[in-house]
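Let's sit down with a protein and look at its sequence and fold side by side. Which protein we use is up to you, so please pick one and set it down. Label the sequence line and the structure token line clearly, so we can match residues to local backbone shapes. Go ahead whenever you are ready, and we will take it from there:

***
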Amino acid sequence: MNRVLSTHLFVNHRLTVALLNRVMQAGIPAVEIFCARQHLDYRNRAQVMELGHWFRDADLKLHSLHSPMYSDEIWGRSGPQSVVNITHPVKADRLKMVDEIKRALEVAEVVPFRYLIQHLGASGEEFSERKVESAFSALEELGIFARQRGVQILLENIPNQLSSAERLNYFLEVTHLDLGFVFDVGHANIGEGVEAAFSIMKKRIRSTHVHDNDGKEDKHLFPLKAEGGTVDWKQTMTLLRSCGDQVPLLLELREVERMEHPLDQANEVFDRLEDLG
């Protein structure tokens, strides 16, 4: 499986070419960039252009972009109006959120990437048919905008009643949208279980998010290294390998305070996961 690292590991720091150089020098071949404006301000043309010039000459590849979850630069702490949620029932407000995601998609005009990772709703959100209709309307428009830039939208299983494995399949069945999935191991571990979620999502899995937790909280722990992780990694790696080489092993980890050399730690996780099975 191809190795990819999400810059979620550094999401509270500005994304610079120096940071990307460190990732490349660590021997990691590709990244998923997390669109948080304190990290990558996709509305800041100067930052995007600087990254574009660097990627054109670098061996490091941009595999995917994670769609913004908040429109502010302080991780949503400015208030509920900063949450970017495509299930919003009020059309005028939803269009503002669609526009926010379009600004992130425009990064592909400078730095090409294959996938945009998109959430259906916020964490803990309840299910309703009205929210399904809102998300369909938003994704129909975003899908056209993405395809014009060579990008495919992938839906992620997250801990809410709209985005379990079964509900994601239901969403595509009723909307007839031709979208793939990113299989989030940690989120599946909190929900229906890794094996159960994988079996439901497998036919549409195009990418992954790999991290650990205690089965209750979304902690984004380092697999096989952090205390408190409960994912069965031998079983999980067997499942992921069954998708073939087109699906990457993509680590989406949380920064650990006072951890020395996090990129070395990430490489050790890659090695240990690949040695299983």
Notes: The chain has a mean pLDDT of 96.
